[in-house]
Specification:
Helices cover 32% and strands 18% of the residues. By secondary structure, it is of the alpha/beta class.
Length: 336
């Protein structure tokens, strides 16, 4: 079947859904071209089918392709940000990293090296997980490319700064403790957003504060509102290189049932998207969307939410990658 694609700005875009039905053909992210079809991409969307670090429900290894399937309905123009990201820059689907499901240490090394390879020409990555273990090697690569520790916003129901599980240092509940210990995070500019639920003890919070994390709970989002939360986050981040890590369980299970460790009382998909859009103009150097476990999803609720989150992250990157051609409604950190 001939691939009839939307072209714009000299870039090869998604398959034209007015001529080929959305449900037909291979499911790349947003029906974009594969990386091997364009040679080079400014933004690469890559999957990491790995969930050997989970502590409860497995299945996030299938998350990347579930998000891709749900992304078939995405369209080329993002009206919320007044940006056509696939016209601004070349965006492509880089497929999946081949990681060892039986050896976490080897898998982490593979993810880190693959991320460095994919960004060697200046491309930026939006990664589809997979469990949250993969954030550590992705942060290592982002920090190496930035040449300094990076700021981070971590959207999650959980802190993910615990020390070990069953003596294992590398799990989906420990990546950000390891990242602080390794010095790859700028500890003056790191925050959790959307945390909630029971903890093992008050020491969890004490350790987290000691590492430098700010915390915006799901209750804070509800009581303070999106605009106030965004202002606080932007002030904390400043103009530092920023990595955004989104565990889909930051959403309430009503919006994202298909995940491994759901917690009641989460934020809505609308709140998450509006907070992300409030980061416009910041120096977003990398991002991930993780912990989508399709076996627990229904009606693609989780996949649809995750695909829109990834789409907005791509849009934010595309918006800042073309400073000579700003969107008519663009805002910068100085405008806030």
């Amino acid at each position: 079947m001939e691939e009839l694609r939307v072209m714009g700005g000299g870039h090869l875009g998604p398959i034209d859904s007015s001529r080929i039905p959305r449900y037909a053909g291979a499911a790349t992210f947003a029906r974009l071209p594969r990386l091997d079809q364009v040679g080079r991409a400014d933004i690469a969307v890559v999957g990491v089918p790995f969930d050997s670090g989970v502590s409860y429900r497995p299945g996030a290894r299938f998350g990347g392709n579930h998000i891709r399937e749900a992304s078939r309905l995405l369209r080329p123009y993002n009206p919320a940000l007044d940006v056509s990201p696939f016209e601004r820059v070349q965006v492509a689907d880089a497929g999946d990293m081949a990681v060892n499901p039986f050896n976490i240490n080897e898998a982490i090394e593979t993810v880190q090296q693959n991320a460095l390879d994919l960004t060697a020409d200046g491309a930026r990555l939006v990664t589809l997980g997979g469990d949250h273990t993969i954030a550590l090697p992705l942060l290592r690569a982002a920090s190496e490319r930035a040449g300094s520790p990076v700021a981070m916003l971590h959207f999650d129901a959980h802190l993910d700064t615990w020390d070990t599980y069953f003596g294992a240092e590398y799990t989906h509940g420990t990546p950000f403790r390891r990242a602080v210990e390794e010095g790859i995070l700028d500890t003056e500019a790191i925050s959790h957003v959307g945390t909630r639920g029971p903890l093992y003890g008050v020491r969890d919070l004490e350790d987290d504060r000691r590492f430098g994390f700010g915390i915006v709970t799901s209750s804070d989002v509800y009581r303070q509102g999106v605009d106030e939360v965004v202002d606080k986050l932007r002030t904390r981040i400043g103009n530092r290189p920023l990595y955004v890590s989104v565990d889909i369980d930051v959403l309430d299970p009503a919006h994202a049932p298909g995940t491994g460790t759901p917690e009641a009382g989460g934020i809505t998909s609308r709140e998450l998207l509006e907070i992300l859009r409030g980061l416009r103009g910041l120096n977003l150097v990398g991002a991930d969307v993780v912990e989508v476990a399709p076996a627990y999803d229904h009606a693609e609720l989780t996949g649809v939410a995750a695909s829109h989150v990834a789409y907005d992250l791509v849009t934010l990157m595309a918006d800042t990658l073309t400073p000579d051609h700003p969107s008519t409604s663009a805002t910068t950190p100085e405008d806030k």
